[in-house]
Amino acid sequence: MQLASALKQGVEYRPVGFLSMERSKHRSLIDGLPVFSFQHVEKAVRRLNPERLLLALDDADNADRRSLIQKLEQLSVTVQTVPSMTELVSGRARINDIRDLDIEDLLGRDPVSPNNSLLAKDLENKVVMVTGAGGSIGSELCRQIVRHRPKLLVVFEQSEFALYSIERELTSINMVNGFNVEIQAILGSVCHSRRCEKVMKAFGVQTVYHAAAYKHVPLVEHNIIEGIQNNVFGTLHTSEAAIAAGVENFVLISTDKAVRPTNVMGASKRVAELVLQGLAQRQQQTRFSMVRFGNVLGSSGSVVPLFRDQIRDGGPVTVTHPDIIRYFMTIPEASQLVLQAGSMGGGGEVFVLDMGEPVKIADLARKMIHLMGLTEKTPNCPHGDIEVTYSGLRPGEKLYEELLIGDNPQGTEHARIMMAREISMSWSEVELLLANLMQASQDFNCERIIQLLKEAPTGYSPNGVMEDLVWKNQQAIQQENRFSVDNVKSFPV
Asked: Cα–Cα distance between 317 and 371 in angstroms, integer?
């Protein structure tokens, strides 16, 4: 009723009716507008012919959002949402701040509830550092860590703008909620070991969440050396700095793409896991653990904002393959589970998040088309609004991802967190691999890097030819020069 009243004050929207979850409200009038039971939503849409449906549901409502969204999806009417009561009470939003559906709604399952006792263990009154703090996962880790009132939060980021943005946001959260958490924003790269060590020692860091990494599969395929330097050696330098600084707990944010990888990004993250497993054997002072999970909805590079933009531009919506599937989780849910898993580590464990059921990307695209009030253009429906097209798998991309290398994962005290039983290397073997990778990087020998990644226990099996852009261009120039020399030699004088 508040929403309808607020909309009537403006000129952009004209309310035409209400949908109620309570059947007893059916056929009543509120402020002159008809009320329909949700069971009669199709009838309401036919009769009122609305251009959009606005969801005014609160988190406390007992509505089955999944089935509700599935039913609305069939109507091909634009579905949007308004802020929750929590946002309204805190002053963060107004009742008529209309926005697209929350990503949790598109996910199609209920997010998992956090175990607060696990969350508090390594956060409350501790000095915590997050690397890659301006990224999608890093920034959400920071938001949630602040709410658990650490003594100090060190946000470490190499991008000046990303660091500025997250510091400003955290300062605002701090002030609005009265958390009184000290926040230190530090510029720096995880590839600079002395910088990392100095920062950790200067602030007395006790827990590190290492989220800094290059994660975009095709970009790392095109920039192999930088991927190895950032993902492998960045992890090495940060973890060695943690040992030198006396850090108690170090958690690596890993990925499902580290399991039987077909791309350099996944292989580099698996090597990063091997590094931490080796360090866990080498010393006992710092507890090292890894948390592996799949795609997060709404992150940089996520398909959801991409599809949304393509639909708004009139299409087509591009999917790489009709059968491609991915595990999805929301950023807040993944970050909560990372914080909880990190508190369980005894040393060297690989934790795996239960991502629920995999999502078919083509189905996600169609769901978004329908919920934005449009229809799919197909051979059977040539007058539809938006076409779904297939562009082919990108370099290093798999049809499906896995979370486990071995079998028989072990349960933990959290129902949605498992512990994987994965092969590891001795520290001496890890050192040799790292030395060879560093030498190959310095020689700009991409072929040697690929060979080393294949020989290591990563399960790396590339599904295409090498795609490093500088390497390919260099090879083309060399080939061109050889061709020119051969022509000169064969020219009769």
From this structure: 14
476 token code pair: 């083309």
* Rounded CA separation 128/142 (Å): 9
Structure letter (DSSP) for residue 17: -
CB 386 within 8 A of CB 255: no
How far apart are the C-alpha atoms of 239 and 189, rounded to whole Å?
Answer: 13
Q: What are phi and psi of 456, to 5 degrees?
A: -70, 160
CA gap 190, 195 in Å, rounded:
8
CB 293 within 8 A of CB 339: no
**Residue type for position 86:** T
CA distances from residue 237 to 50, 230, 348, 393 in whole angstroms, order as listed: 58, 10, 17, 34
Q: Contact 148/207 with Cβ under 8 angstroms?
A: no
Phi, psi of 82 (to 5 degrees): -120, 165
What are the chain's domains? 2-101 (3.40.50.720), 116-420 (3.40.50.720)
Collapsed DSSP state (helix, strand, coil) of residue 52: strand
C-beta atoms surrounding 362 within 10 Å:
18
Known active-site residue 257: yes
What is the Cα–Cα distance from 31 to 1, expressed in whole angstroms? 8
Q: Mean pLDDT over residues 447-463, rounded? A: 94
CB 277 within 8 A of CB 429: no
348 backbone φψ class: left, alpha, beta (φ>0; ψ -120 to 50): left
Q: Locate tokens 């589970």: which residue?
A: 337
pLDDT of residue 294: 77
User: Higher pLDDT residue, 162 or 484?
Assistant: 162
The answer to whether 138 and 212 are in contact (CB under 8 A) is: yes
Closest by Cα among 274, 277, 264 to 441: 264
Q: Of 7-11, 101-105, 363-367, give the lowest mean pLDDT range.
A: 101-105
Distance CA 306, CA 316 (A): 11
For the segment 310-328, the average pLDDT, to the nearest whole number, is: 89
Residue 178: count of CB within 10 angstroms of its CB: 6
Q: Which of 257, 269, 367, 398 is catalytic?
A: 257
Half-sphere exposure of 57 (CA within 13 A, CB side): 20
Are 247 and 201 within 8 A, CB to CB? no
Instruction: Identify any residues that bridge with 52 across adjacent strands, giving them in sequence order.
Output: 78
